[in-house]
């Protein structure tokens, strides 16, 4: 253990990044090598999507309401109360929806993948699979990573719809607007340059969540406490990646569209 | 299966004319500054049960993990069927692993799958069988031979320690391995179940004609299952012989294992 303390933090961090890159290539090589695990992929899509839909729905609903309540006083000062639908849709669909839903998914999905695979590592199930000649990366990691890459964007879309609907209800608490007019304003305010980059971003968020969950699980240590560490560091690292991707995405988007 | 036969023909012959399936020379492995394997030399002949005794932490598990390429040795030569494991490509390593059965200390059953699904996994993922009737038959046959047919649709969490060992054993036997590696097959089991597992190891040697390395510190298992025994201490083998020879040995570490045996 002594040598572990003397390794500088940045060196460990670089090593970790190196391992992540290596794991990425391993994932890539195994996507189609020798048969895709459709059954496990579909099962994971169901697990990941279905089990998170409640959480995403409730969070988006509350966020829609809260944003309207918070936006109103500011818009009132500018005499722009009628701009509430547009303000909500832009802030929600472009930025807050994707990022917050991705963070929620990081907390729920990345941690559960990290814990599941971490405990398989501790109980030697990963070694057993590897040693039997089966392809553990293909069966366990590829399926989970692709499942989050597909399901997180879908969850984000559902979250957007629910959040915008919640906004409609929230506006009608204080002011009144017809359903038709509300959605007319919402849709009119959203262009291709709002929807497309936001959607592409969620694909990367989904990938990061599945990838980091699997990486942390596959690379956990063999003690019992390492299951918790794998789950925990999966959430922390995935959340960090989400912000990094968001920062890159905003640069790319403004270069391409504005 | 044809390439298996080809390998057998190329295999080097041991001094007394028997085939050597595993040949290890001067194997070394360290983790960081910690030297775990210092100088491991071992030959396993076809059909032989070689048993390794040793205190925990001396590197027994590391040795057999090197044999199947789960760990990469730092130095020395490790040949299986005459081929150097360290020089194998991913594909060759996969082919090699199909000839091994590795029983992990914990059984290592896939805990999200039933026993049936656990046993089907190597058939569909490694041997790539499609014929469901053949799959069912092989699963039932192998469970029958480890005496666990009644638990076929149970989850691993519903099984006792002994049953889990049997199920783990069945999962490794189902692809008809030529070499079995047992990592502490009886540790954590009661004496009666331990004896049953030890006899099962002996039956497997006869029925499946396997060569085996058995890691244990269970002397009863050693008495029942071993053709030849080695004692490992601090990353080296310090004594070798049959059960009776080691029993008579004046070596202090050997004697400590036999102290309770009359
Ligand atoms: N993957 C690993 N990484 C670091 N150290 C390891 C690893 N595997 C085993 N060791 C260390 O090597 C030593 C021997 O372990 P092992 O072979 O499991 O002992 P045993 O003889 O009880 O089976 C132990 O001190 C263990 O901590
Ligand atoms: Mg061990």
Please, could you describe this protein's structure?
The complex is a heterodimer of chains A (258) and B (262). Chain A is mainly alpha-helical. Chain A has one domain. Helices cover 86% and strands 0% of the residues of chain A. Chain A contains 9 helices and no strands. Chain A is elongated, with a radius of gyration of 21 Å. The N and C termini of chain A lie far apart (53 Å). The N and C termini of chain B lie far apart (47 Å). In chain B, helix 5 packs across helix 6 and helix 6 packs parallel to helix 7. Chain B has a 6-stranded mixed beta sheet with strand order 6-7-8-3-9-10, sandwiched between helices. A 4-stranded antiparallel beta sheet of chain B has the order 2-1-4-5, covered by helices on one side. Chain B is built from 10 helices and 10 strands. Chain B is α/β, with parallel strands linked by helices and 262 residues long. The structure holds adenosine-5'-diphosphate and magnesium ion. The site of adenosine-5'-diphosphate has 10 residues of chain B, from helix 2.
């Amino acid at each position: 253990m002594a040598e572990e303390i003397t390794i500088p933090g940045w060196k460990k961090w670089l090593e970790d990044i190196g391992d992540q890159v290596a794991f990425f290539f391993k994932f890539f090589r195994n996507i189609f090598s020798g048969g895709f695990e459709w059954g496990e992929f579909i099962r994971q899509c169901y697990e990941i999507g279905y089990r998170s839909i409640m959480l995403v729905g409730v969070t988006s609903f509350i966020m829609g309401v809260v944003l309207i309540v918070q936006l109103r006083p500011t818009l009132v000062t500018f005499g722009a109360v009628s701009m509430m639908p547009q303000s909500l849709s832009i802030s929600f669909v472009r930025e807050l929806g994707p990022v917050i839903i991705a963070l929620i998914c990081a907390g729920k999905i990345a941690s559960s993948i990290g814990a599941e695979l971490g405990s398989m590592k501790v109980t030697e199930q990963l070694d057993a699979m590897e040693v039997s000649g089966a392809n553990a990366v293909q069966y366990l990691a590829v399926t989970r990573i692709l499942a989050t890459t597909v399901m997180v964007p879908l969850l984000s879309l559902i979250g957007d719809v629910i959040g915008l609907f919640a906004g409609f209800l929230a506006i009608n608490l204080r002011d009144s607007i017809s359903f038709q007019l509300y959605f007319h304003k919402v849709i009119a305010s959203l262009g291709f340059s709002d929807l497309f980059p936001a959607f592409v971003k969620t694909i990367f968020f989904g990938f990061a969540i599945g990838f980091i969950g699997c990486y942390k699980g596959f690379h956990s240590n063999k003690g019992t406490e390492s299951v918790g560490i794998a789950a925990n560091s999966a959430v922390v690292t995935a959340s960090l990646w989400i912000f990094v991707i968001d920062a890159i995405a905003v640069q790319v988007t403004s270069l391409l569209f504005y | 299966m044809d390439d298996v036969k080809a390998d057998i023909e190329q295999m080097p012959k041991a001094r007394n004319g028997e085939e050597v399936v595993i040949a290890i020379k001067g194997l070394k492995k360290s983790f960081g500054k910690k030297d775990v394997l210092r100088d491991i030399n071992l030959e396993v002949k076809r059909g032989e049960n070689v048993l390794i005794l040793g205190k925990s932490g001396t590197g027994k598990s590391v040795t057999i993990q090197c044999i199947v390429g789960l760990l990469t040795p730092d130095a020395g030569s490790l040949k299986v069927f005459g081929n150097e494991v360290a020089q194998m490509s991913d594909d060759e390593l996969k082919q090699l692993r199909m000839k091994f059965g590795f029983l992990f200390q914990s059984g290592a059953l896939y805990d999200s799958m039933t026993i049936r699904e656990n046993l089907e996994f190597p058939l569909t993922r490694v041997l790539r069988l499609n014929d469901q009737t053949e799959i069912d038959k092989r699963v039932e046959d192998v469970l029958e031979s480890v005496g666990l047919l009644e638990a076929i649709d149970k989850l691993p969490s519903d099984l006792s320690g002994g049953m889990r060992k049997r199920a783990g054993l069945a999962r490794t036997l189902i692809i008809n391995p030529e070499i079995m590696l047992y990592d502490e097959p009886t540790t954590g089991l009661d004496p009666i179940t331990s004896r049953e597992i030890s006899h099962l190891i002996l039956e497997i040697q006869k029925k499946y004609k396997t060569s085996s390395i058995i890691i244990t510190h269970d002397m009863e298992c050693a008495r029942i299952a071993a053709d030849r025994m080695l004692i490992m201490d601090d990353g080296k083998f310090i004594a070798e012989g049959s059960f009776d020879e080691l029993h008579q040995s004046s070596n202090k570490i050997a004697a400590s294992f036999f102290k309770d045996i009359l």
